[in-house]
Write a structure and sequence with these properties.
The chain is an alpha+beta fold and 213 residues long. The protein is built from 7 helices and 8 strands. Helix 3 packs parallel to helix 4.
Amino acid sequence: MTTAKTMAVSKADAGAAPAKIEGNDAGTGSDPAAGREAGMTPSVTAAAEAEPATGLPAGRFSGRLAFAQGIRDALATAAREGWSEIVLSDADFGDWPLAERVVVESLTAWSASGRRCTLLARHFDAVMRNQARFVRWRGLWSHIIEAHRCGDADAFELPSAIWSPHWALQRLDIERSVGWSGNDPERRVALHEALRHWLHKSSPAFPATTLGL
């Protein structure tokens, strides 16, 4: 377990180098169809020059309480500032506060036509079993939500993160919930590239039409 965790942290730290986003990912207004033809993932449309989020922390965080509060604060800010896109990624979202009323209220306030949420996980079993409020929100707003799974990914490989064009948060040590948050362009672009890599290898999952609600 220690070896796998160390490798995951090393990979994440190595991924903090600057990454280049081109075409639609750079927010240049290019045709999304051209991005699909080039093998790009249209569900993560990075805007490296987007206005930074306000009132959110920047720097290192440590511990599950800090991680959970970062998620709450990020989604509340997304609703308040009207972020156009958010990506939520984790192996299984098992320790995310997605069952909390305040979190789902923030997601509901954020939800609107023209916005986009991408969910990425190894599987959604824990979500469907333990996070009923979030599952209902996913069903009600299925037209702006895409869910994908990477069943072959290692639990320590898949980013545990929130990404937006304005701010991001990522756990680098999953077991200790240690990571970074902020709007540093290099880190946000590197995280975007990692998410795009896994989305390219993913398949649709967590369908809204078969949730039994």
